[in-house]
Amino acid sequence: MPLSNDTIEELATVVDDAARHKEPIVMLTADHPEMTLDDAYTIQRRSMARRIERGESVVGMKMGLTSTAKMEQMNVHNPIYGHLTDSMMLPDGATIDRHNYCHPRVEAELAFVMSEDIQGEVGPRQALSAVEGVCAAIEIIDSRYKDFEFTLIDVVADNASSTGFAVGPVLKPAQALELGNLGMVMSINGEVVETGSSAAILEHPARSLAALITMLAERDEGLRAGQTVLAGSATKAVHINSGDRVELDVDTLGSVQLQVQ
Ligand code: 0L1
Ligand code: MG
């Protein structure tokens, strides 16, 4: 049986407060084992509604758990999505404060910038036709759950751990670029910590974009022109600490950096 509206609102407040105050919480399914994936996506949307009431705006979406490495790390088999707000956007080269996070990690990603609204069940080619440009991106994920103990349903309710992202220069048009097998190298303080290929992002980043649009269609939603979409990580997530300089280089797309203080 789905959770009642009151319980959904209560749990949306719990995850929203945890993200706002950086206070880790016990996974929601511990007290609500009956929670479904659909409930979790509703909780995610209700927690976004709370952010919007506080003045934030949704600037895009992210795909999560897209690589085999990440799926194995999480012991799951399907990708998920989350919402990105303007408060999560960081300029390329930004300095972030480690103390503003619970247990932050970074992921090596690609991002799409949409040129048109798009909604419905689409394939990769159609999804790409609504894209203006593409860029290298670092995502910061920061699960709000204590000791990283959570199920897939908990992660979805917690907006897929979304916390921050920075993108490099946007290259256009995306359709003219070969995106299927770009080398991706993530370094911390000049030392390579993860290497991968864009092929690891659901086999092709455009497949990830199409999967997102198709999942959103289940709720009669779509993407809007101008939104940014993080296609998902090509590698495992890496913990960051004060003093770290994180750099991601992507073949032909260029690089993006973050500094942790
Ligand atoms: O971006 C993602 O791949 C979602 C990660 C969610 C789980 C985690 O916090 O590791
Ligand atoms: Mg990610």
Largest sheet: 8 strands, mixed
Average of per-residue pLDDT values: 96
Query: How does the overall form come out from the CA principal axes?
Result: globular
Radius of gyration from the CA trace? 17 Å
The CATH architecture: Alpha-Beta Complex
Element string (H = helix, E = strand): HHEHEEEEHEHEEEHEEEE
Instruction: Provide the domain count.
Output: 1
Q: Looking at this structure, what is the CATH superfamily?
A: Fumarylacetoacetase-like, C-terminal domain
Estimated helix fraction: 25-40%
Unique bound compounds: hexanedioic acid, magnesium ion
Amount of beta strand: 25-35%
Briefly, what CATH class? Alpha Beta
How many distinct beta strands?
A: 13
CATH topology: Fumarylacetoacetate hydrolase, domain 2
Helices, by number, come to 6
Structural class: alpha+beta
Low-confidence sequence ranges = none
State the end-to-end CA separation. Answer: 46 Å
